[in-house]
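Narrative progress, year one. The postdoctoral researcher (J.K.) led the effort to move from monomer predictions toward full complexes, under supervision of the PI. The following entry was the first complex the group processed end to end, covering 963 residues in total.
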Amino acid sequence: MPKRRRRWPYRYIAPLVLVGLLVSGCGQQYVLLHPVGPVGKSELHLLILASLAMGIVIALVLILLAITVIRFRDKPGNRAPYTPNWHGNKTLETIWWIVPVVLLTVIAIPMVNQTFALAKVPKAKDPVVIDVTSLTWKWLFQYPGHHVATVNYLEIPTGEPVLFELTADSPMNTFWIPQLGGMEYTMPNRVLPLWLEADKPGVYWGHSGNYSGIEFEKMFFDVKAVSPAAFNRWLNQTHQTAPPMTMQDYHALLKFNTVGYQTYGNYPTDTFPSVMSGYTLTGSGMYLIEHNQHGLKYVPMSNK
Amino acid sequence: MPSFVLYLIHTLFPHDVRRPTELGADFLIIMSGVIIVYYLTKQKKWRYLWDEWLTTVDHKKIGIMYLIAAIAMLFRGGVDALMLRTNLALPTTPVISASEYNEVFTTHGTIMIFFMAMPLIFALWNVAVPLMIGARDVAFPRLNAMSFWLFAFGALLLNISFVIGGSPNAGWTAYPPYTGVAFNPGPGENYFFLSLLIAGMGTTMTGINFLVTTLRMRAPGMTLMKMPMFVWTTLTTAALILFAFPPLTVALAMSLFDRLFGSSFFTLTHGGMPMMYVNLFWLFGHPEVYIVVLPAFGVFSEVVATYSRKALFGYSAMVLSVLAIMFLSYGTWVHHFFTMGAGPAVNAFFGLSTMLIAIPTGVKIFNWIFTMWGGRIQLTTAMLYQIAFIPTFVIGGATGILLATVPADYQLHNTYFLVAHFHNVLIGGVLFGLLSGTYYWWPKMFGHKLDERQGKWAFWLYFIGFWVTFGPQYLLGLEGMTRRMYTYPLGFGWHELNVISTVGAFIMGAGFVVMVYNVLYSLKYGERDLTGDPWDGRTLEWALPSPAPEYNFARIPVVTARDAWWDMKQKGQTLANSLSSHDISTLEMPKNTPVPFLLGLSFFVVGFGMTFEWWIIVAIGAIGVVASLLYSAFDYDEHKHINADVIRRTESALGRLQG
């Protein structure tokens, strides 16, 4: 079969596409590349480190493959050596058992370090605790210290770690604020801890990362990071002025629908723990389980 | 009884299966059904269909039936994908509604994994493995047919959900408590659990069958370390299936109990533990990843050696790495849910084990490249898939390492970065591998080659389409877009990349069209394979004529070297040049039986009845199941004899008999 070949300007297109992607990669919409808190930053650093190490492997393989395919193509007049029975070489094979081991060790050591480091709220600071409950297509946030509750938005102080206690009275979702750091599941009958921190004031978006029904894609929420003084002002003001949440309000939230922002100056205390019967607390050992006459109660270890 | 009729219509055809897409599908199904029935009746082919295909126990024919089913399912799963991508390109004017989108992404994933990748693997196993090891059939031919029919009726059960009763909509992972009746009424999830349970039984039996076949049915002289690499991957995959499918079966059955009988294993209320389902599911799910990718590795090991005209490089290391992958793959499942609060020690362990499994995989990549080094590379379609596979799979593996880096995974979990990663390994690894194998073994199945020129067109459309689709999805992940959203607000910068991705999906769709055209064209015009060895192959299947006669080998060959057929050719031997008339004796072969088909049908009736909780129908189906099994157990007349004269005539007609 006669070969008809037409030359396309690949050599111009490829760099252009690459440059385009790199430029767009610096855009603010790449939220994972623009973290504003220590958790998001250390996760990004690991991502970059792992990408570099893996980039080496990819480059090696691509170059080797290209050379091989070009050099040993079956065409008349190819003078490259033909060794049909060459089926092994101890030295070479040892090299490519070792190369991945080395590169993966480079990633693995900081990975393990950071995994343990990020599981603990930094000790020096006493975290603001926010109880998060995912409901069917909405988020309920409760501030147990001040008995303030919000729906679909939350306020946090900047420069301080915030400890989220995650649970669900709905199918599973994940609680995710991309610019502050990674996500964690909200699951019924369990409470999971996740801490995040915002470096500077701003409004960041959050979303659920786990599908939970037909209006799941609307489960966005806003995170307003404000200075600690403004945060305390907001808490006190809300506690005094906003209407309290009744059990009726809570049951209305349990309906399968979406709602807008809501603010409550108080809430029935059992709306957070009572949604779980017989929950277990695992996580990073930051919690203790206390038995008293009301049943099980969990307390963060830092309160002890 | 008009109220009864109304009840039936209301149950079987509720509102959500009376939308335009479903009605269109109804129309197509009815039309194609009518055409098929008309054709079969006109051509008087019903008898032929029953005798030659529906009751067959011949591994070669079962393989072809798997192949046809897999291509049909690739079509269905692909159309699903195009519907999803179309919606995401048009965020302001969604083409399909949220509830349809959820059903479509669920069936897309389920079909592609369970009803496309798995049967395509079993197609290649059935077609190639017995021939490669010099056997006349698999170890348990009747069980093999049962596996196929259980798979086929399981697939049918899932597919009719689209037009009768409503599709499942909880994703292919079906995480509870969303699968519970409280959140998910209707028959959809029942369909999902039952169809996977039925097909899963077939898969488990296939695992047992091929484990025994590879261990016990090899030709004399073929020691374990002389087995072709594809057979090694079959052996390890079969072992993986044997231990990976039980947790899935348990998880599915418990979910089904929650739905049908009011138990609370994984429910929101009464102290259910949804995370236990997640553990069980991925305890199956991660080995499953290797169940689908190891056979692709096996195909590549055969293809690369054949088209480089060179022995596989580092055979022992390849065997070692396959075994290492087999063992390690049971120890990585938690990496699918690092963000479920298992704690840093558990997460670190599973992050490390995941990185560990990358090492043997990396070794295989280098061994394939060095198989080409010093060879003479023929760029056939099958080889193009191989060459495209290496960089694609390496990049997919590298992004897998990024996801295994636990803190980074907290950011990337459930985003489009993850979606791009697993499509990267599943398309770049599994689909490319299986298509490569299909092009490679096509002559052995049908006696003609697929047209190379069209094959290359299809390849380039798939390959370019793949990167145009999934490259942007990595970036979407970095932009924070999470998976399974049927639409999204503008203003996050997600729109442009989604449009590019959708264009890529349609390029891949064009690849599928070209591939199907290629199959139909080659049926008529494809180059006939008269020698049985069109690629100058290395393993025993190429020593046989294409397609191989019913009994495969007139005389079982004796194997003395690793690439047995290549070695024979080097020594100037063929299977034919030493075969004389008195070597041939009467052979005992397994006899056709209707039991596997009827067993599958009975299970289908059970599944359908249980989906709608119509217990009388369940009972009827169950009686069918028991009756089929009892009949089979007491049927001692399971062999037939192929007379030596018939074999002599066949062999001499093929020109393979001396004197």
